TrEMBL record:
Gene3D superfamilies: Tetracycline Repressor, domain 2 (1.10.357.10). It holds the Pfam family TetR_N. Residues 23-42 bind DNA. This is TetR/AcrR family transcriptional regulator. Transmembrane segments: none annotated. Coiled coil: none annotated. GO terms for molecular function: DNA-binding transcription factor activity; transcription cis-regulatory region binding. The keyword Transcription regulation applies. Keywords: DNA-binding, Transcription, Transcription regulation. Residues 1-60 form the HTH tetR-type domain.
Length: 178
């Protein structure tokens, strides 16, 4: 409850005043929490904007590890990315993405976050298919993470997801050991 309150307050202040114009103390005061409480929930100011980061990564891991044994990997990841893109491509998310695009600190955090997600996803894929090279697992994981960003920015996000995942699936199938 406190975490969501802090994140919601921060996002509201960032959108009202501008990301660079709002400090951690401003967020803590507005959320009626101590700065130490804020930092017990968020490691940085940037993390306040990406508060769903762990949820995003968890959903991708679940798509890999919790799918039925007969369900192929790439379509499971495509379906998860499609669902995530639908949420982030919603009209209500546009101001947040505009803020992120305008802030070098937020763009840098987003890039680092995507690399962390790709590494976690690559590890999960490698555990699933140990015969696949580490390089192939990392490449597919990065393609999946980048598919999210590319589709989110596309005029037709759903079609973009399908188009990108056709390429990802072809690459994955090409790398299947005989």
């Amino acid at each position: 409850m406190t975490r969501q309150k802090i994140a919601g307050t921060a996002l509201r202040l960032f959108l009202e005043r501008g990301y660079d114009e709002v400090g951690i103390r401003d967020v803590a005061a507005e959320a009626d929490v101590a700065v130490t409480t804020l930092f017990s929930h968020f490691a940085s100011k940037e993390a306040l904007v990406f508060e769903q980061e762990e949820h995003f990564e968890h959903r991708l891991m679940q798509a890999v590890t919790s799918r039925p044994p007969h369900e192929p990997l790439i379509p499971a990841l495509r379906d998860e990315i499609r669902a995530l893109v639908q949420h982030c491509a919603a009209e209500s998310a546009a101001p947040v993405w505009c803020m992120i695009d305008k802030s070098p600190a937020l763009r840098e955090y987003d890039g680092a976050m995507r690399l962390r997600h790709a590494q976690s996803l690559a590890t999960a894929i490698a555990d699933l298919r140990p015969s696949q090279s580490a390089t192939a697992c990392r490449a597919i994981a990065r393609f999946v993470i980048d598919a999210y960003s590319l589709a989110r920015e596309a005029a037709d996000p759903e079609t973009a997801v399908d188009e990108i995942f056709q390429m990802i699936e072809a690459a994955w199938n090409a790398g299947v050991p005989s």
